[in-house]
Design goal:
Protein name: GNAT family N-acetyltransferase
GO molecular function, one term: transferase activity
Structural class: alpha+beta
InterPro entries: Acyl_CoA_acyltransferase (IPR016181)
Helix content: 25-40%
Number of helices: 6
Radius of gyration: 15 Å
CATH class: Alpha Beta
Largest sheet: 7 strands, mixed
Shape: globular
Keywords: Transferase
CATH architecture: 3-Layer(aba) Sandwich
CATH superfamily: Gcn5-related N-acetyltransferase (GNAT)
Strand content: 25-35%
Oligomer: single chain
């Protein structure tokens, strides 16, 4: 069956996003898989994801009735709802791109991206970002995300679709991060 790229069509799709997220957290996968396949770091709730979807439709990939990938749209207004991301949003406000302070720009953040194991290497990741560009580029100057530097698979995949590293930092817990931006201006 062909993969469809679009937006969640009800609460069942929200639950499927969270199910896919749950099986790709570092606590759910082996160290080998974490190194080789990548991982997600933030755990969302149904309420938060539903609110994010109401503010800006999320981007998903479906194969039949199964969500097989997602790339979450997180507006800066949601920063306070995900405490672990507050430092990233504060840092973003202090950074600049093309001589403009990010706090003065119209952007959003990829809250998380994930592709089901069964659909990796089949263009789903790229398709999610094609959908982001199609749905969002007319309204936003760029999209930003942060990626754990040890998540090499994700760094390579984001570079492939057009993201460029604009900043690197090490968090207080010792985790190194790359902040990457895809310029649509």
């Amino acid at each position: 069956m062909a993969v469809y790229f679009g937006n969640p069509n009800g609460i069942e799709d929200i639950h499927q996003i969270l199910g896919l997220q749950r099986v790709n957290l570092p606590t759910s996968i082996s160290n080998e898989e974490l190194e080789d396949q990548g991982f997600v770091t933030v755990r969302h709730t149904v309420e938060l994801l539903s609110d994010m979807n109401a503010a800006e439709p999320q981007i998903i990939a479906k194969d039949g009735d199964q969500v097989v990938g997602y790339a979450l749209v997180m507006l800066p207004a949601f920063a306070e709802r995900v405490p672990v991301l507050v430092p990233m949003f504060e840092l973003l406000d202090s950074l600049s791109f093309k001589d403009r302070i990010l706090a003065d720009c119209n952007y959003y953040v990829i809250g998380q991206v994930c592709v089901a194991k069964s659909h990796r290497g089949q263009g789903v990741f790229d398709g999610l970002y094609v959908q982001h560009h199609k749905q969002m580029s007319g309204r936003y100057d760029f999209v930003i995300t942060e990626i754990a530097t040890r998540n090499r698979r994700s760094l390579r995949a984001h570079a492939r679709v057009g993201f460029k590293t604009i900043h690197q930092f090490t968090a207080p817990d010792g985790e190194a991060w790359d902040i990457v931006l895809w310029d649509w201006s």
